[in-house]
Each structure stands twice: as structure tokens, then as C-alpha cells.
# Entry
Amino acid sequence: MISPAIELESGRCAFEPGETICGRLRWPANVPGRAARVELIWFTSGRGSADSRAVERAYIHAPPATQDFQLRLPPQGPHSFRGKILALHWAIQVCVDAKTVAQLEIVVGPSSQTVDPYEAT
Amino acid sequence: MLGAIGAGGAALIFFFLQATLSARPADYWVAAPCRIITSTYAVPTNARDGYRFVVAYRYRAGGTEYISNRRTEADHDTSDFDAVRDLMETYPPGAATTCYVSPTDPAEAILERPQRPAVWVYLILLIPAGFVGVSIVGIRSQWKSKPRFVRLSDALPPRWAGWVASIVMLLMGAAFLAFLLPPIVRVFAARSWAPVDATIIFSRVQEDRVEGPTYGVDVLYGYDYRGRHFVSNRYALMGGTSTGRASKAAIVARFAPGAQVKAWLNPSDPQFAVLDRGFQWSMLWVLLPLVFVLIGIGGLISSILAARPGSGPELEVTPTVSSDMADLVAGRRLLSSHSRRAALGKTLPVALIWGSIVGVIAGITFADAGPVERGVLVLFLLIGVHLLLRAGGDLLRLGNPSITLLLEPAEPRLGEPLTAHWRFTSPPAGVRRLVITLRASEVTTRGSGRSRRTGSSDFLERVIVDTTTPGEIGAGEVTIILPPRSMHSFESAHNRIVWTLEIWGQKHRWCNIEDDFEINVRPAAAGVLA
# Structure
């Protein structure tokens, strides 16, 4: 499967809750653009079973080879978080024909930073 | 799990009632006079059989004379010779009595119709009824504990839950104690019993296949006392069978038929005699129901204490708030602990089931188990005692005064002040120290069912109230600023960030108060971190 590149505006990968993420999919030069679903998701990792949830979706219809999208982060979080036994991550992923073909991890949190509660408290 | 316990209890009740109350054909057999011809006993012919009551009686039906040797519809042998002896005394040779004749076949007759159990026997149904009750309470508490915040009226543990659990514990303990205590009392009484010469009639190692196989000492002996002849097969003050044949065979070898031995008889009840009047380790099982009884009594005392009318200053918002939404509109939230009842709902069934199973297994096997097996049994028993003590502690905690928290704002934000008002709903008598701790934790779960594993790590633990002043213990308030750069509350299917206010009240000579109040902490408002 040929994957598109996910490019975010100004190259940012860290955001505050409630912000709007602007970006684009760039397919390889010799590949025409395809219909895709761009999802804003959070997922967990750590000692527990993994959970995930898509909070926002954007649908892109083919072509062209470069496609813009906008996704709005929920204002109430959850925040990106890294604890001792649990971590919460945010990512933008691209799905084509129900398969994930690209994923870009981002940070969502106050001051655009991952929360480390052991340092914060 | 809880559903299975309840269904099992209900099934036991159904089968017991069906077995004891349903009518049998012999209920309708016709009464007729009869005379006993012979009345004696037969010793077992192999290791698994018991003693049999052998009877023959003559009766007339339809002008014809018949002889029958049936006592009941289905005659059974028994390992308890006393039961056979009682029948021999009830039906002595030559006695005139009543038999019951089949109306369809006059050659069939019995001496005793099927008997209904005495009313008190139905008290045994309290045990499965207790399982059903625990199951219902547990399932209800699980349903009700799903909302993260509960109304005050729903949250307080119902008074009857403590009463019922305590009474069931007490009755169960008392019922088992009634069986186990008499042999121990007799150990002390037997010190003054008189020795008599006895002659061994029959001896064997008895084998019980139902529980095992398990083995017992069965020695039938006769003795004379004050001109009367008695026969008994009671070897020791506490009977029963257990695993391990060799130790029983060694005892039986000392009592060959015809041997002259000493027996110890109770002078006030000469029919009651034993060959060994000493203490047996199996008598220590009396401690197990004693724990049940003590926990039941403690629970009743707790319930009585909890039933006392409350006093103390009222909060600005009274506990008549009807819904969470009303609290939210008011910008405050009333919380009260529901963790005590839920804790009891988890620990009590586990303790009862574990204690029953391990207790029965240990009771049967301990006496003849090897050192390794005994070690394992002791370990399992210690776990059982620990579980029982935990359940007992949870039961006693139901009687502790409840505490109510009022939060302002209802759902605080990180970086903003949170005011918590607390008040005991009944006088906090005996509470010497009150500590309120703010705790935040990562909580993870993996797997499901039996393989479910839960992990937890605290990233914040801050004591916000620590007082020994009686006036402050009864009611008070505290304001704190939640750390702005921390992590807000979060919940997904397997992972959570949990914020709690933990109440710990040190009580004098009683179980401490331990209640958790989960609070919903929202992310910091925009600009707070700027």
C-alpha cells in the first residue's frame, strides 16, 4: 500500500486543546490522490489494555495528489499524558479502504506539552 | 459470579422443599395393629456398610395374617449404632404397636410412615437464603455503583443490609457451633466420667465413599452398668471420617473382638460411653463458626450504633437535593460514600465460599494428612481467616457514621480553588482523628474475568486535613488549589485517571472509617498556565 505524507501547517506537531489543526496529505508524485478518511484519534499505551477513540474525521475525495484537511481538537481534552503505567497519545491517521496507511503522532496539552503528572505535582 | 451464587442458593431451596414437602405413596397406607416378633441388630458385613435394625412383626389385613420386616419405605443402614439401639428400644420384642399396610398389596407393610422434618430443620434454608440475599444486594450495588456520582439518598448504605448480613452471619455461626460445641464441652465433663469394663463385639475400619474415600474407627462394644447392659460404637467424643486408613487400622487393631477394654461412661447418661475421652485436634474447628458469631455480633452492634439519630450542624445545601443536575445548577455537589456496601458485597461472598469449601476439605482430610498437605491446608485456612476478618471489618464499617462532602465547584478545574465541606451524618463518637487526603492515580486494567489484572500508580498524594479537634472532626471545610499542570480526570474502557478525596477517621477500639469520594477534575481553563 502506498502511503501519503501528512504535513501539518508550519510543521507544528504540538497543539493546545480547542485548536484547529490544518494540514494536507501529499501522495507520492507518480500516484494519483485517492479517497481517504483523515482521523484525529487518541490512544493509550502502558500496562493496561489499549483503548482508542476517533474524535474528529475529515473525508477527502480523490483526486488531486495534494489534499487539505482541517480537524478541530476538543477543548476539554484529554491531554497528552505520560505516566508510569499509562500514557495517552494523540495522532492523525489516514485510512484508505478501512486500512490505516499513515499516522502522525502529535501532542495535545496545556502549553502544547505532554502532561507529566509526576513532575507537575 | 454473584448471579451464580444467587441461582445456586435458590436451587438449593427449591430442591430441599421439593424433597421434604412432596407427598409419597406410603402417606396413604392404612394403619393396622401389629406385634413385634423380633428386634435386634446386624453388624456390617463389609467396610462400607453400616449397622442395620432387624425387625419382624405380625399383623392382619383382610382376614389374613402377614409378617413384615420393613420399618420404612426405604430402610437404610447407619454407621451410628445409637440410632439402631433407639429403634430396638422403641420396638422391643412382644410390643404391640401400629403398622401401615398398603391398600393395594396387604403383604406390604411398614412401621413408620415417611416423616416430615421438624420445623427447626427448615432453618437450614437460611444459609442458601443468605446466598440469595447477598447475591441480590451485590447485584443491586453493582447496578447502582455504575454512576460515578450518586445522590445522597441512593448512596447511603441501607440500614437493613447491615442487619441482614449480621443476622445471617450470627445464625450460620450459631448453627455450626451447635454441632461442634457439645463434644468440646464433653471433653471437660469426661474428666469426671467413670471407667467401666467393656467387651469388644465387633471392630473394623469404616470406609465412606461419599466423601472420598475417607475412613473412620468403628468399634462396637458392650458394657454393664448398674445391672443393665449397654452397647455402643462411639469411639471418641467427636466422630466422623477422614482420609488416611493406616492410623485408623492401628487403632482398630487394639480392639479385636472379645478383647476386654476400659470405656468411659457418662454417669448421668449411661448409654453415652467412649473408648477415648481425650482432646482431638479436629475439635479446633469450633473456632471457625466462632469467628462467624463474633463478626455477626459486631455487625449487630454496628447497626445499632448506626441507627442512632444524627446531629451536628447542617450544610448550606440540605440532603434533599433531588438530582445531580440540581447540584450542578447550584454549582455544588453532594457526595456520600457508597464504597462500604460495595466493599462488603465483594468480600463477604468470597469469604463465605472460601471458608466453607476450605473448612470442609480441611475437616475431612487434616487429621490424616501428611506434613506437606497440612502445610498447604494451614496456608489455605490462614487465607480464609484473613478473608473472614476482612469481611468482618467491612461489616463493622457499615455501622460507622457516614460522612457527607459538599464540593464547590461541583467539578473543579486544575489550577482553580476547590472547597470541600464535610459533615458526619451521625455523631462521630469515638472518632479521634480525621485525615482527608487528595489522591490522584493512574489505573489500568488488562484482560477480563479471572485473568483481569489491575494496576495503579499514584502521582499525587496530599493530606489536606489532619485534625484531632473534636469540633473540626464533626464538620468543617477546606479550600485547596488543584495543581494546574497535572492531569485531569480521564476514563476509557481499560484506563483511568482517578482523583479521589479519601476520608480516614481513627476510631477508638473499632474499625477505622475509610471512605473514598471520587471527584471529576476538569482540565485547566485557558490562560491559567499563561
In short: The longest strand of chain A covers residues 36-46. The two ends of chain A are 45 Å apart (CA to CA). Chain A has one helix and nine strands. Strands of chain A lie at 5-8, 14-15, 20-26, 36-46, 52-60, 66-72, 81-82, 86-96, 99-108.
